[in-house]
């Protein structure tokens, strides 16, 4: 039992250490002597850009989001703003129509089909050479669009992803753990950019060459994740642009964040299976290793966690440290999940981190179950977020 218990504990520890520490260290070594993404100057002529904004029942935020898009520092005659209403039932459509005189276009879908379905429907209406995809609840600073577009002067780049900055108000303090995770993810993408190509774009703010958008993409899958893979399939790079900042409000509670993570992880697993050919190292070399490490190995941490608990149970019969570790793990996980009930209270940062990790672990396990069962979730319920304007 001792050997079996040790193996069961060792597997999740090894997987987590490689996914969150080993892989970044290897990227640092590989990128040590490589040049970062160069700083591009303004092109002789700015390319035409189409900004695609899917929305479902976003009357509380859609107006401010459109205002931020119209305020972007970019030639107005080169910029198209298209809002795709996914059969909204509130005042979203009316608010968007109020911007018609300022050039904002509305495409209303008669039947709700989900975010990817809305993006698929928008393709025929997009006129720009570059398509910028973003969410209805984010804020893009006026100076963020040009850095995102400048990089397309390099012919090898097919996709450019913005840098998410998690922001929140007092009401979202207990989701501050999300900010730490977002910062880690952005740092990892900067390392991948130096080495070659990122393996997933930020769904909140990314740009792609129009001819690389795959039409008829399955509605139940994640286009922002798949876009980086599609770009690589066509021989292009996908990069992260540090100066292209996107302010992403945090969820107001761990409950909504849990549901969002279950949805995104389930779609991510199914999207990876759909594009599993990219995991072939004989064809895609280092990119296949990066995709395996950043996505699959990291996601394997979640189903490996119960193995570690079983290992502790087996060892607890003989070892005192295993009994203490089992009790501590149970207490910490339970305490972390209880923080979801602390809405409206100030939460110390260590507690917020603990709650976020507990929630993320449970969400990851649920997502694996859903993905293996073949669950489809093309209809998305947008995460309602606080609209703070300053990062914490």
Tell me what the structure shows.
This protein has helices at about 1-30, 60-70, 90-95, 115-120, 145-150, 175-195, 225-235, 255-275, 280-315, 320-340, 350-370, and strands spanning about 50-55, 80-85, 105-110, 130-135, 155-165, 205-210, 235-250. Helix 9 crosses helix 10 (about 320-340) and helix 10 (about 320-340) packs across helix 11 (about 350-370). The chain is built from eleven helices and seven strands. Mean pLDDT is about 85; it is low at about 170-175 and about 385-390. It has a single domain, classed as Spore Coat Polysaccharide Biosynthesis Protein SpsA, Chain A. Strand 2, helix 3 (about 90-95) and strand 3 (about 105-110) form a beta-alpha-beta unit. With about 400 residues, the chain is α/β, with parallel strands linked by helices.
Question: Can you give me a brief rundown of this structure?
Answer:
With 392 residues, the chain is of the alpha/beta class. 48% of the residues lie in helices and 14% in strands.
SSE order? HEHEHEHEHEHEHEHHHH
Specify Rg, calculated over alpha carbons. 22 Å
In CATH terms, what is the fold-level topology?
Spore Coat Polysaccharide Biosynthesis Protein SpsA, Chain A
From the N-terminal CA to the C-terminal CA, the straight-line distance is 47 Å
**Structural shape:** globular
CATH superfamily: Spore Coat Polysaccharide Biosynthesis Protein SpsA, Chain A
Please identify the structural class as seen in this structure: alpha/beta
């Amino acid at each position: 039992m001792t050997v079996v218990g040790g193996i069961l504990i060792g597997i999740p520890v090894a997987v987590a250490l490689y996914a969150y520490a080993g892989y970044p260290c290897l990227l640092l070594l590989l990128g040590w002597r490589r040049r970062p993404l160069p700083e591009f100057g303004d092109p002789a002529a700015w390319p035409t850009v189409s900004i695609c904004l899917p929305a479902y029942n976003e009357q509380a935020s859609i107006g401010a989001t459109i205002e931020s898009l119209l305020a972007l520092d970019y030639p107005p005659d080169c910029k198209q703003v298209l809002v795709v209403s996914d059969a909204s039932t509130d005042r979203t459509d009316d608010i968007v129509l109020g911007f018609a005189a300022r050039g904002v276009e509305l495409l209303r879908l008669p039947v709700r089909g989900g975010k990817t379905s809305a993006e698929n429907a928008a393709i025929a209406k997009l006129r720009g050479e570059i398509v910028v995809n973003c969410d209805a609840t984010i804020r893009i600073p006026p100076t963020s669009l040009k850095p995102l577009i400048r990089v397309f002067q390099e012919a090898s780049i097919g996709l450019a992803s913005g840098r998410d900055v998690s922001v929140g108000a007092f009401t979202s303090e207990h989701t501050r753990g999300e900010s730490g995770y977002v910062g880690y993810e952005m740092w990892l993408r900067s390392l991948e950019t130096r080495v070659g190509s990122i393996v997933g774009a930020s769904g909140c703010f990314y740009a792609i060459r129009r001819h690389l958008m795959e039409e008829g993409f399955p509605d139940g899958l994640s286009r922002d994740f798949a876009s980086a893979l599609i770009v690589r399939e066509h021989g292009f790079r996908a990069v992260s642009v540090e100066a292209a900042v996107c302010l992403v409000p945090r969820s107001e509670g761990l409950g909504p964040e849990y549901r969002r993570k279950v949805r995104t992880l389930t779609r991510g697993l199914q999207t990876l299976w759909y594009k599993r050919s990219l995991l072939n190292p004989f064809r895609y070399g280092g990119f296949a290793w990066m995709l395996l490490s950043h996505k699959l190995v990291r996601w394997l941490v979640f189903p490996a966690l119960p193995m570690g608990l079983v290992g502790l149970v087996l060892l607890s019969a003989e070892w005192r440290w295993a009994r203490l570790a089992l009790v501590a793990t149970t207490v910490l996980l339970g305490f972390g999940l209880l923080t979801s009930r602390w809405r409206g209270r100030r939460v110390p940062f260590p507690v917020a981190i603990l709650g976020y990790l507990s929630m993320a672990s449970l969400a990851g396990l649920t997502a694996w179950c859903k993905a293996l069962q073949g669950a489809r979730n093309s209809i998305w319920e947008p995460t309602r977020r606080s609209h703070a304007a300053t990062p914490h």
